[in-house]
Amino acid sequence: MALIINEDCINCDVCIPECPNDAISEGEEIFVIDTAKCTECEGYYDSPQCVEVCPVDAIHPIKA
Q1: What is the pLDDT of residues 9-29, one digit of tens each?
Q2: In CATH, 1-64 is 3.30.70.20
């Protein structure tokens, strides 16, 4: 599974250095997560670090 950043993103960039897979980058209007690279931090941490540090709760699992 992977995560997505929604329109609540305030472009604060605190999530970028937390990603062990370099899956987060600047998009046109908000930051974006490369779903091919995102592992939700499995193998690195117990929970997704970008979710932990996001001050506005803009990062969520992709809904199927």
Answers
A1: 999 999 999 999 999 999 999
A2: yes
